[in-house]
Amino acid sequence: MSQESGPKGRLHLVLATHERKVLDLACDEVTLPGRLGEFGVLPGHMPLLSILNVGELRYRDGKKTESFAVSGGFAEIADDMVTVLAESAHTPSQIDVPAAQSESKEALAELSVGGLDEVKAARSKLEAAAVRLQVAGRSSQG
Amino acid sequence: MPNLIDIRRRIRSVKNTQQITKAMKMVAAAKLRRAQDQILSTRPYALEIRRVIGNVASRGEDIQHPLLEVREEGRDLLIVVSGDKGLAGSFNANVLRRSSERLGESEGTDLLLLGKKGADFFRRRELPTRASYSSLFSGVKYEDAKAIAKDIVEAFSRREYRAVKVVYNQFKSMLTQELTEEQLLPIQPTQEIDDGGARAYQFEPAPSVVLGELLPRYVTFQIYRILLESQAAEHAARMGAMDAATKNASEMIEKLTLQYNRARQAAITTELIEVVSGANALAG
Predict the structure, then answer these.
(1) How confident is the model over A91-112, as pLDDT tens digits?
(2) Three-state secondary-structure class, residue A78
(3) Relative to the CA of A80, which of A1, A25, B18, B39 has its CA 20 to 30 Å away?
(4) Mean pLDDT for chain A?
(5) Is 70 exceeded by the pLDDT of residue B201?
(6) Domain ranges (residues) in chain B
(7) E-strand stretches of A1-142
(8) How far is A51 from chain B (nearest CA, A)?
(9) Residue B259 pLDDT class (50, 70, 90 cuts)
(10) Residue A31 and residue A56: Cα distance in Å, rounded?
(11) 3-42 of A, contacting B, C-beta below 8 A
(12) Chain B residues with CB-CB distance to A14 below 8 A
């Protein structure tokens, strides 16, 4: 379980999807795309249960920062243990940029036609694609 | 005395069947391994989501959500998880028998059929069926579970049903499958509470909103898990059945070969007697 939180407490991050455990490691800081806005988690955070938006999860271990595109998830934070359950989680290298680009174009086209349900679906599709592109872009810069 | 050529023909046909059953056994074994891996890889998620929901639910009585609502009246929904194919021993028969029993016990039950065998079986009986899905089991996908769960969750939230139950084969080991009945809805929080104990959480956004997102996701995951269990159980059952069939074929071949040799010997003996008595007649 979580590490003993000594003077230099660290966070333990677990990221799992229904298909596999993606991450299980210790780190210094986690940034999560909460429903009410992005928030950071440091050791000693209060217990929190938050729904996550489609967005970018970042964690910092020393000076190294890694990003994931996550969707359809929620996070539980308790005792310096951050548990993120998501429907999908991709590292920058796993993201198919052309596919995400064409998906976002498709979604844009769908936005202009159809009823309320279609627009909703298209919007979430666009969001997902945009986040994947953003995360993918991060790796090429770094 | 059976004809030699007939026996030889039968041996050949049994051998052909044996080759098929042997191949099916091997295919089932390979698929079983994959299905097992799929189950194993859902474990971390399963543990965590159960713990989180248990934590939330144990926070007190004030939590209300349509999916937790215990109702007195209304119809029931029975989800029957069978396979798409036969030749898997008692895999399909067990599920179908138990479901038929349940249907006989209570009136006012609708069916939701997953798998072609169940759909075929109940179509003939013309029972009230909400929906039937087939060809789920050539590789269980999360999207399928999502679609099924969405339908059920919406129907239950509209108060169409009092309870939703599932009958399926649970994968226990390579050799055993266990026929299992579970209540899917309303979700029974007491079931899910682990020793984790209650924690004073901050919710973001409000608890009711968090629960509103968490619970449907939990139902989806449950259906996904049940599909995976059934998939693995089906492959295990088929493996067992085909193994038994292969063994039976071997026994049969042995028996027929014995018969064949006896018949051959008898034929030779007859021929010898004929030759000898012919020679004797000439000599005499």
Answers:
(1) 888 888 888 888 888 888 877 7
(2) strand
(3) B39
(4) 83
(5) yes
(6) 22-240
(7) 11-17, 21-27, 29-34, 37-41, 48-51, 55-61, 64-71, 74-78, 81-86, 88-90
(8) 6
(9) very high
(10) 8
(11) 14, 16-21, 34-36
(12) 44, 48
- Residues B225 and B171: beta-carbon distance below 8 Å: no
pLDDT beyond 60 at B195: no
Give CA–CA dist B171/B175, Å, rounded. Answer: 9
> Is the confidence at residue A63, as pLDDT, over 50?
yes
Alpha-carbon distance of B134 to B155, in angstroms, equals 21
Helices (H) and strands (E) in chain A, counts: 2, 10
What does the CA dihedral B147, B153, B158, B161 come to, rounded to 10 degrees? 110
DSSP state of A93: G
Q: Which phi and psi angles does A35 have, rounded to 5°?
A: -60, -35
Q: Are B185 and B161 in contact (CB under 8 A)?
A: yes
Chain B contact for A116 (CB, 8 A cutoff) = no
Tell whether A76 is within 8 A of chain B (Cβ).
yes
- Residues B224 and B148: their CA atoms lie apart, in Å, by 9
Q: Name the region of A73 (left: φ>0; alpha: ψ -120 to 50; beta: rest).
A: beta
Q: Detail the DSSP E strand segments found in B101-249.
A: 109-114, 129-133, 161-171, 177-185, 202-204
- Calculate ∠ Cα B29-B35-B37, nearest 5°: 105
Q: Which of B42, B199, B204 sits opposite A50 (nearest CB)?
A: B204
Structure tokens that stand for B119 in this block: 């759909």
The CATH code of the domain at B22-240 is 3.40.1380.10
DSSP A46: P
Average confidence (pLDDT) over B82-102? 91
> Cβ–Cβ of A48/B203 closer than 8 Å?
yes
How much is the average pLDDT of B6-32?
95
- The pair of structure tokens assigned to A3 is 């590490």
Chain A within 8 Å of B173 (Cβ-Cβ)?
Answer: no
Q: Is the pTM of this model over 0.90?
A: no
Residue A115: helix, strand or coil by DSSP?
A: coil
Q: Interface pTM (ipTM) of the complex?
A: 0.74
**A96 inside 8 A of chain B by CB:** no
Backbone angles phi, psi at A9, to 5 degrees: -65, 145
Residue B194 pLDDT greater than 50, yes or no: no
CB–CB contact B42 A19 (8 Å): yes
For chain B, give the percent of residues with pLDDT over 70: 92
Query: Can you tell me which residue has the tokens 């009958």?
Result: B167
Closest Cα in chain B, distance from residue A121 (Å):
14
Is the pLDDT confidence value at A2 over 70? Answer: no
In tens, the pLDDT along B164-190 reads 999 999 998 888 899 999 998 888 765
